[in-house]
Amino acid sequence: MPLVFVSQHAEGRPSVYVDDADAALRGTRHLINLGHRRIAFLQTSDETGFAWSSKNRLAGHLRALADAGLERDDALIMSVPGWKGSGMGAAVGRLLSLQDPPTALFAETDDFAFRLLAALREANVPVPGRVSVMGFDDHVMAGVLGLTTLAQPAAEIGRTAVHLARSVIEDADGAHRRHIVLPTELVPRGSTAPPPTGS
Q1: 151-156: long-range pairs with CB below 8 Å, 24+
Q2: Of 182, 184, 166, 183, nearest to 174 (Cα)?
Q3: CA distances from residue 113 to 107, 133, 137, 177, 192 in whole angstroms, order as listed
Q4: What is the mean pLDDT of residues 6-33?
Q5: 3-state secondary structure of 116
Q6: 0.70 exceeded by the pTM?
Q7: What are the sequence ranges of the domains in the chain?
Q8: How far apart are CA 118 and CA 163, in angstroms?
Q9: Cβ neighbourhood burial of 78 (10 Å; 0-12, 13-18, 19+)
C-alpha cells in the first residue's frame, strides 16, 4: 500500500517533515541572545502520536543550551498533563517557586503556550515583563495573542505530502525513500523580551 509519513521521518518510507531539533535550537538561541540564562522547556506528559516531535524539540533545546555553555537543569524540563485538570497552573507554580526560577518558558507547541499564557495571567505574572514565553507551530491564534513562535509551513507540508503520495503511487520504487524537509521560521512577537533587570 502506498504510504507517506507526514511530520515524521520514517526510515525507508517517503516522508515530509520539518527539522524539529534545528527549529527548537534556533528558538532557544533566540531566548539566549535576548539575555536569558534560565530557560524552562514544557512538554506534554501524555502519550500522543507526536512523541517524536517532542523528543526532537527537547534535544534541540538542550543542544542550544550546551552550545552556549549553559548547564542542563532537569528542574527546568517540565512534563505537564494534557488538556484536562490544572496541570499547567501547578507546573507554573513549581517553576516560579524554584530558588533560581526561569526567566523564559519554551512550550513545545503553541496550544501548550496558550495554556501557559492563561496560567501566568491567572497567577498575575506579567509576560514578558517577568517571564518570556515562546511556542512552536505558528497557530492561527499566535499572532492574535502576540506569541513568539517557530512557524512551520502546515499548508505546504500538506501539499508536498499529496505530491509525494502521487509520486509513490506512480513510481513506488523510485519515490519510496524520498525525504522532504521543509523550513521553519522564527517569528518574534511581544511575548519575548530581555529578562528583568537583576534576574
Answers
A1: 151/184, 151/185, 151/186, 151/187, 152/18, 152/23, 152/182, 152/184, 153/18, 153/182, 153/183, 153/184, 156/182
A2: 166
A3: 5, 7, 10, 35, 12
A4: 90
A5: helix
A6: yes
A7: 21-151
A8: 39
A9: buried
Q: Which segments of 34-86 does DSSP mark as H helices, in order?
A: 51-67
Burial (CB count <10 Å: 0-12, 13-18, 19+), residue 192: buried
Q: Identify the helix (H) or strand (E) that includes residue 189.
A: none
Cell 531539533 belongs to residue: 21
Range in 8-12, 76-80, 102-106, 150-154 with the lowest mean pLDDT = 8-12
The strands making up 179-182's β-sheet, listed across from edge to edge, are 5-6, 15-18, 179-182
Cis amide linkage into residue 126, ω under 30° from 0: no
Top CATH class of 21-151 equals: alpha beta
Asked whether the beta carbons of 89 and 119 are under 8 A apart, the reply is yes
Percent of the chain with pLDDT over 70: 89
Contacts of 131 (CB under 8 A, 6+ apart): 96, 102, 103, 104, 105, 120, 125
The predicted-structure confidence for 31-57, as pLDDT tens digits, reads as follows 999 999 999 999 986 655 456 688 899
User: What's the confidence (pLDDT) of residue 54?
Assistant: 83
| Cell output for 13 | 518510507
Give the residue ranges of DSSP H helices in 18-171: 20-33, 51-67, 87-96, 110-122, 140-144, 154-170
